[in-house]
Amino acid sequence: xxxxxxxxxxxxxxxxxxxxFDVVNYGRDKPGxxxxxxxxxxxPTPRFIVEAAQRGLADGETFYTHQRGIPPLREALxxxxxxQFARPFDPESFYVTGSGMQAILICLQLTxxxxxxxxxxxxxxxxxxxxxxxxxxxxxxxxxxEESGAWTLEIEDLEAATTPMTRAIFVNSPANPxxxxxxxxxxxxxxxxxxxxxxxxxxx
Length: 204
Description:
alpha/beta, 41% helix
């Protein structure tokens, strides 16, 4: 008899378990504990959002919709970015996903193949490396430097970790869990680095 897990892909078998949920499960029902382990608030969903969802269900909005997100939402996103960056954005360039993790998985599927590498500055959220492994890609950790509680990402460390198999770099800013925020100068350096090596930037 074969174990069912032996039938799934090698990447799925080798993906690490989520350390986040080990912590969640350990502390879930402990009294007096403030749950800071996951990216969610401690208040219920606002009523106006709940009521909008209820109206949508009551109105029969339960069928397949636009694959990239409904046009009014993509238009609103483009308008928001135009206000933020004072330049035009095409609504057709926006894709709406069900979650941030789904977006990361799609980006990895689009940019990396089996055996190829994605640079991941660490410390960072572990599920990104797990997603790369499931995809069959190899996560390459690039350790950020820490001094007196401040983190920095040095381009020379990215250069040292880059190989002919490198296809993308994952940038998480503000970073989870370190709180590192990339400066404008650092982002410009990352952009030049990625262009130099013809790498995709996956930004979260």
